[in-house]
Every structure is written in structure tokens, then in C-alpha cells.
Amino acid sequence: MKKNLINAVIFISLIAVVVLGGIAGHYNLWQNADLETVQQRFSENFPKTKNVKINTSPISGLYEVVSSTNLYYTDSSAKLLFVGGIYDPSTQRDITIDRKRALGILPQEGNKEGHISTEGRPTLPTSVPVDALSKIAPYSITLHDAGPDAPVIYEIFDPQCGWCNRLYSESKSAGLNATIRALLIPNISDKGMIQDVFCSEDQIKTIEDFAKRSYTISGVRTDCDTSGLQKIYDFYDEYFTSMPKDPNTNIRRMGTPILYDGLTGTLISEGYLDQSSLKQAMKNLHNNK
Fold this sequence. Notes:
By secondary structure, the protein is of the alpha+beta class. The chain is built from nine helices and ten strands. The strands form three sheets. It has a five-stranded mixed sheet. Strands 1-2-3 form a three-stranded antiparallel sheet, with helices on both faces. Strand 4 and strand 5 form a beta hairpin. The longest helix has 22 residues. 33% of the residues are buried.
């Protein structure tokens, strides 16, 4: 699917959320509030997210949430995060990408310099060592279990990533004949949020709640050993050397989802694949092994 169409769909989905929320009376998306109030509410609702600035956006009732590495949106209650692009059909421009360039999150158009966003970033490794994946497998979260004989997909995964959540939901409903193991990384989420998900008492329930945009942590274990999570970060640091490090976390930042084959270590996809495309990619990979 072309990028413009994807952004248009995201935009339409965003409007649908706004309209449905307004009808239900649950959210106040169309009610403008002063920036200071929204900033305060955001800090209260996302206390672990630091150095974020709230700005107005092109859509009334929505606000930019700007960090050093990303741009997303919230409403006046600052309880929800909208991740995606705003597309202007009249100019055929992605307003969000243009805004990221203006903020310095993305390089200027035509600049090939690597950066943290998906667009124009350095090339991912086409494969990673299988034994390296095996070593961090115990610290992954099994999103979908297709049984002991099924192929394994390792997914670089952020629980607040919309495309990650869509892949998770589709794999579950479609009965994908592959086991998916998530390797957590702070891409949209901050480092504290990733640690809370990793340490949650019920990781899958937490991820399901995130997929429903409720962002509820299902209890955080106080005795949680985070050394496994650090081993995942060390794996990124060793094998994804072309990816830039986030200055706030010192962790290599990659767009999500990214899929690697557990049998060969081969890159399957840089980004979301629908179920038919994912099944075909896996079939081709294993037929050619």
C-alpha cells in the first residue's frame, strides 16, 4: 500500500475516533483547552514521559505531543495518544512529515542523512545471527503461539505502536501458522513504559489493553529482574550499529514492527505486513532455505 494511502487511512481512522468519542460523550476531542492545561494533564497521565512539549495541531481539539525524537497527538484530556500521519488531499502532503522536518525530527526533504524516524533511516541488517536471537528468546514475549513445530518470527515491538498492535490482533484472529516473539524496544514508548510492560504481572493482558488503546499496565512486579530487557538492548547495540541511539535512553531506536525469521535470522519485513503477505513471505523464505 502506498504511503499516501496509508496516511489517508490513518487520518480517516483518527477522525472516526474523534467522532465516535464525541457521540459517546467519553472524550472532549473537539473542545479546545489552553496549552498549559493540556501540558499539565499530559504530565499527570504519562508521568514517565519526560521533556515533552504540547502544541496546537491543524485539527481543532487535537494537540501535538513533541519529543526530541517523535511527534504524535493527544486530545484535550491528554489520556489518549494518536500515532500516525495527517494527510492533506488538497496539497497531497503529509502534514505530520512536514511538521517533523520543521521540528528537526526528520532531515529536510532530499537529505539522505540517517535519522530516528522510519523514513530515510539507515538500512537495517538483512540478517542477524540465529544464536543471538536464541540467547534473548527467553526474554521475549510470545504474542502468538502456533505450536512447537511452527516457524518462529522475532518482532521488534513497541506496545504503543499501532501497526504492531494491528499485526498482533490479526495474527491472533487469523490463526497465523507461526509463533511471534516480541522483543521490546522504546520507539514510541519511553524506556520506563517498556520496563513496566516487561515487568507487568500479565504481559499479554497488558499488550491487549495497549492494542485497545487503554494503556493499562496489568500490575508491575516489584521483584522484576530487568537484566533480560537489558540483554535485548545489548543485542540491538551489537547488531544494529547503523541505527542511531536515542540520546535520552542510549538505546538504538528503530521503527516498529520489524520482523526477523527465527530459523535463518533473515529480515522478513521492515514494517507491517498483512496476513496474506506475511504468510507468503514466510513460505518463500522457508522454501528457499
